[in-house]
Amino acid sequence: MNLDDAYAVNTPQDSCKLYATWAATYDETFIKANDYVYPRTIALHFDMRVSKSEVNTVVDIGCGTGAVGSYLANLRPACAIDGFDISPEMLACAAQLRRIDESAVYRELVAVDLTESLPNRSYDAMTSAGTFTHGHLGAKTLISLIRLVRVGGWFVIGINAKHFASQGFANALDLSRNAGTISKPDIEQVQIYGPAGPHFGDLANITTFQRLQ
């Protein structure tokens, strides 16, 4: 399994099939092999941009094996983090992760196809890395997920820069801002992979905003 396999995904069923077979080796064959720095960058950005006093609960969308959650749990040890992902096999890996105090990184892990339904939950903030891109979760799903965060809550969402405009993310965010649903997104472009990885140069837009209504 490799990056080409991930980009070949077109449907939720494709995702389930791919990650069911990849979960056990994902951290070694993808995260380490490609110097995948994106999750750490997202977590650091979240910690720098989001108020500590206002955020006690976070949902990690497309959490996979838990890379974002692991970093965020160390940076924000008081936060309860839930993870949503379509792959039960990836979630099983995330469930093994532990914080410094040996408690679980994730309070709850939910297997769900977010293109079909949303859990009845409310959070102070949402984060995600590597999920909003071609073939995974699209712009329509991103906008629908806004309702999972309380009014005044925060979003720190990584969106693949190559697909930001072409897959409708830029337009969807503009429409939500114009409707008064969200604040003006602050966008910072970052590397997805480190210089040791074969895909260094691929970029993501870290998109930070708040829910207004």
Give a written overview of the molecule:
The chain is α/β, with parallel strands linked by helices and 213 residues long. It has eight helices and seven strands. It has a seven-stranded mixed β-sheet with strand order 3-2-1-4-5-7-6, with helices on both faces. Helix 7 (139-145) packs parallel to helix 8. The chain is globular.
Describe, in short, the structure shown:
32% of the residues lie in helices and 24% in strands. It is of the alpha/beta class and 213 residues long. The protein has a seven-stranded mixed sheet, with helices on both faces.
- Whole-angstrom Rg: 16 Å
Helix-strand topology string: HHHHEHEHEEHEHEE
Please bin the fraction of helical residues: 25-40%
Determine the strand fraction and express it as a percent band.
15-25%
User: Which regions are unreliable across 5 or more consecutive residues at pLDDT < 50?
Assistant: none
Class by helix and strand content?
Answer: alpha/beta
Shape: globular
Biggest beta-sheet profile: 7 strands, mixed
Average pLDDT number: 94
Strand order of the largest sheet: 3-2-1-4-5-7-6
Number of helices: 8
**Distance between the first and last residues' Cα:** 42 Å
Write down how many β-strands occur, each being a DSSP E stretch of 2 or more residues.
Answer: 7
